[in-house]
Amino acid sequence: KKETPSDFSLILKRISLMDSQVDVTESDSGEKRTRRIENIRFAAGLKIEPGSVVSADILDSGFVLDRPRFTLKNLTGRCIYDPEKKQLSLNRMRVQSEETDLKLEGTADFSKSVPLFDVTTAIQKLSLSEIGRLASIETLNEGVVNGSLSVEGPPEDFVHQLDLRMDPLLVQTKGNIIVQKGGSLGLDISGTVRDLNLATLASFGTPPLTGNINTDFEVKGSHLLDSDRNGTIQVDIQNSRFSEYPLQEGSIYLVFDKEAI
């Protein structure tokens, strides 16, 4: 009788990388720029189960980037990959920087010709000034938002649902975001804006304004990033105020085709 090997599990309780440093040199028009990533740390546990399911528990990780200044205080959570199902799962993932705190859960299915994602992010705290520094947007220099974001589907045509709050501002959107051939963008989304204080837009480089805006809106369009853009925008204004002028309920409907509106 032919014997078969018994199933076994491989367990590494802790793999650690401590106090490391990496210098990244970029060359742009003959000018060299060096960025330093230091205080790199990483600790994880690894388990290979019968059937070749691999799971990794990220116990602790972080780094400090010098330019632009950014500190990843901690990244933790569990990653599970099933090679038979070709599916990756993210469980209890948490990303913490000096000013931001995010929690993620989700799956990625690679069994089809196009990968399918289903990811939910709980935005405990998202610093706009931190995003501004990383993206070199000087006018994005204050404010903290919280809420949630979920995305589902293939990366080129996914359904999203967004809920952002920055007391008392509320922004909610849902619908399809489509990445079209050539890198253009298509949208089929609807949304709500409540208690938008126009004075806060001054931080985005707009002239000082006052007022409180409440709207519902729909945007449908394709090729929005190139000259063949087309689509419609509908804005339903609820009771609002622009400067000292009250705005009663009303609607704005725009049709755009290439350069014409």
Protein topology:
Blueprint: E1 10-28, E2 31-48, E3 54-65, E4 70-82, E5 87-97, E6 101-109, E7 116-127, H1 128-134, E8 144-153, E9 157-166, E10 169-179, E11 185-197, E12 211-222, E13 230-237, E14 240-242, E15 245-247, E16 250-257
Care to give the gist of this entry?
The chain is mainly beta.
Low-confidence parts, pLDDT < 50 over ≥5 residues? Answer: none
Elements, N to C (H/E) = EEEEEEEHEEEEEEEEE
Total number of beta strands: 16
Structural class of the secondary elements?
A: mainly beta
Distance between the termini: 80 Å
Mean pLDDT: 89
Strand content: over 45%
Largest sheet: 16 strands, antiparallel
Structure description:
The chain is mainly β and 261 residues long. It is 3% helix and 66% strand. It has one helix spanning 128-134, and strands at residues 10-28, 31-48, 54-65, 70-82, 87-97, 101-109, 116-127, 144-153, 157-166, 169-179, 185-197, 211-222, 230-237, 240-242, 245-247, 250-257. The longest helix is centred in the middle third of the chain and has 7 residues, at 128-134.
Write a concise keyword list for the protein shown above.
single chain; 261 residues; mainly beta; 16 strands; 3% helix; globular
